[in-house]
## 1
Amino acid sequence: MLILTGRFGDRGAAAAAGGRRGRVTGLLGLGLLGIGAAVFAAGMAAGPSGLVAHWGPDGPFLHWAAEPSRSTVTLMGRGAALCAGLGVVLVLWALRRGWSGVRPRVLLLAGALTAVLFALLPPSGSIDILNYAIYGRITDLGLDPYVTTPNELRSTGDPVGLLRPRAWAKQPTVYGPVATAAHALAAHLGGASMGWIVFWLKIGHLVAFLATAVMIDRLSGPRAAARVRAAVLWTANPLALFWMVASGHVDVLAAALLTGAVLLLAGRVRAGGAELGRGLAAGALAGAAVAAKVTFLFPVLGLALACLRRPRAVAAGALGAAATVAIGYLAAGRTAIASLTQRMAHDSDLFLPIPGLLRDRPTVYSATILLSTLATAAVLWWRLHRDTPPAAGRDLPLDARPLIAFAIACVVMSPVQYPWYDAAFLPLLVLLPLTRFDEALVVRGAVLSAVLLPGIGTPPSQYEAARVAVLLFSAALAVLCLFTVRPRTPAPADRVPGTGARGWQAHRG
């Protein structure tokens, strides 16, 4: 007769109950992800509205002219965002309890198919992609996008310029030369059609999104639970799909380039020229990420700190990054360099309470943002250092903690914090096991999305609500950093009876 001791019998019963709760929670989370994606798709397919930008009379987008009211699409957009955020959080909670009851390939396939669908639906949630099309058209016509404004293009009677959004009508492009080159290529393919230029932009962002999905699946390692986490944070996350593919933000290009650099440096260390070559290639990709969007300079700095034990790779990477950025900006001209400070001139969508006295002094303003970001990164690095082993339980030749700390800091300390900025850190979280910040960052993105949607013609009141949400999250982040509250992680020893698991004591009688 086999008798289990009470202490271990209780542990087994608790583990079994926790497993059941994890399974229910995980499946509920997956269901909410599906609902969020479906509601987003329905809102986009309804055609131009408060959720869908007007892209002109042509283009290959799938839609019908349902003409939904602004209140309808507001409810749909916010409901989809909250469903998506809650779904990701529930799956993360289930993973903490040892659940991984869905094959990673299923999530990868579902995410990829949803991404393709979102690319074929109209541009939604923001007018930014229309601005990309305008700047690309300006470049393709041989004009300087760092000097020429959308209004100036409109004044020529250009059919793309006639569709320029009003919000940025007087603003030359603020994006780096890599992003500008991508915009110009889409404009060259799309010709004199706003709809077709936007379509090609979305196809490029779709490729970048899927490439990032494949890379982070590889970076997450062989464990099914880690791959599931990677998928729900990015590939099958309706919020990431919506902002990166459906809305088509340039951040996805920078995220793909940075993730490519990480993948190169995460490979097995090799001696001699191979290490130098890998570092040089990774640096070139990291530099291209910065030349797409300059705020990615902070994650790139974190990547250099992550490889401090590989001085050859760091030196070669610094050379590759510097050369790429220098070549890009020199090719774009001096006006591209001057554009680096232009974004800070807009204070209508600031998410942090920055005094006007500071904004009126660009040098002091920039220095303050730089120092506050570095300080926040240092605190996050310290917290991750205390919580997490350097290689996340895997044989990685880099310490991902400074990389992730700098990536999060560059977003949460940015004067402007739109939810698509989260592309700077979401793909990188897979380099560490579940952290204390995962759920909080997901909730932050979901709440900001819900506050700002439907996104077209956003009134000042929504920005005011977003500022409140950002301040509340900043306080929550400080609490998570300063207090020792360890998130629950799955315990492999806690298994159900009869599996031969460790931790069971048996007596024969």
## 2
Amino acid sequence: MLLRTAMMPVIGSAVRRQMTTRWPEVIFRSALRTSAAPNPVPEYLAALPARYIVSSPTIETMAAELSAFNADMAAFGRLSSDLPMTVVFGDRDGVIDYRWHSAWIQRSHDQALFKTLRGVGHMPHHVRAEVCVELLEQLVDTVSIVESKRTLVA
């Protein structure tokens, strides 16, 4: 919500100025705690200097990424339903409702593999990196097998 407000016409620049000059530390630490909850913030993220993360160019970049993500999700249903896909959620995510997102993805991609990690919040790739790496390796293996079969058929 704050990110969207910071990018609004007319008031956005004033919001960004307040965010970056008055409250960068508070905003950054709060966002990290919210995203990581219920897990502790990983030390390497906690060590990041707030002034580099809560800066006008960074806020603009995050807003552009959010906009691009939303556009990608709008086109999601047009992806091939046989596209290998692995989706990782934390069951304690306070940022998104993983059940809603799982059902939404499942409607378009019934072959998708879903992994919900118990006791994990919005950042499973930071909190349970080893599980995410393992799932990514499995996905790469799956894609390699699919591509090999396509090459043999062609």
## 3
Amino acid sequence: MIKIEIHTLAGQLDIEIKKNEDFYILLVILSKSQYFQEDGRVWSGKIEETEKLFEIVNLIKECYRKPSVPTRITINDGRLIKINLKDDESQIALHLIDIDENTNESELIQKIKELTIEITGNDAILQDYLDIFMD
């Protein structure tokens, strides 16, 4: 299971990937937000091809083993990304505040975003929220 929680001043976006009996399910939850004037939304989808999912798992493990060294002063801009991975081999928790470009962490966030967009069918509204929360 992978759980990604993105907390910002504007609201919260959660992405969960869980294994069902024979396949994986992606669930995206946008919490109620006065900033976006939303009562909350949910998107979901079945992950048919697991290649990208395993790339994400490997990136999470790599980010945990060798975290990138910030190249500038880290400032909390009001966004915190928590990533939890639980599988047969390990249990990993990452807390990302300020992500430099061209790092394992930035690649991880991009891969999660791409997989989410692909599985939910390129939903334009979700894509806008992912841009706001993940860029």
